[in-house]
Amino acid sequence: MEPKELNQLLLSEFPELQEKFNEETSWQDRMDTGSFIVFEDVFMPFLETYVEMNNTDMIERLYSFIEKLCDIKDPYVENVLYVAVLENISDYVNPEPFEKFLKPKSLKIYLDNYKK
Fold first, then answer.
1. How far, in Å, CA of 45 to CA of 32, rounded?
2. Among 13, 17, 116, which residue's Cα sits nearest to residue 63?
3. Nearest to 34 by CA among 48, 24, 49
């Protein structure tokens, strides 16, 4: 999968990110901007906000999307998932509030790679 396709998938799942996406990519390659950047600078702050607000509906959407990424058998998607999402969660000063919402596949990847 190319960055453009993964970015489009993100925006199709979360159209409310379009404005932030445009802001973050306007000086880069827009839709072709690397998904590592997009997920780190657009998706993760969005996730952080809703976890901190304890917005259960949005948390369910966000973590279901993370789980959906686990089902895409593509090296690029897997790298973005591991580095831009799961590794970022593990790097938080207090990752527990974020870890507890991980679903079975993403939790297994997380535990196998970041909680040894």
1. 20
2. 13
3. 24
Cα-atom radius of gyration of the chain, to the nearest Å?
Answer: 13
pTM above threshold 0.85 = yes
Tell me if 65 sits within 8 A of 13, measured CB to CB. Answer: yes
- pLDDT tens profile 20-70: 999 988 877 777 777 888 999 999 999 999 999 999 999 999 999 999 999
Q: What is the DSSP letter of 41?
A: I
Q: Measured between alpha carbons, how far is residue 105 from residues 66, 72, 116 in Å?
A: 9, 12, 17
What distance in Å separates the CA atoms of residue 101 and residue 81, rounded to the nearest whole number?
15
Q: Count the helix, strand and coil residues of the chain and give each as a percent rounded to the nearest 5.
A: 80, 0, 20
Q: Which amino acid, 101?
A: F
3 state DSSP class of 7: helix
Number of helices (H), then strands (E), in the chain: 9, 0
Position 55, amino acid: N
Amino acid present at 64 = S
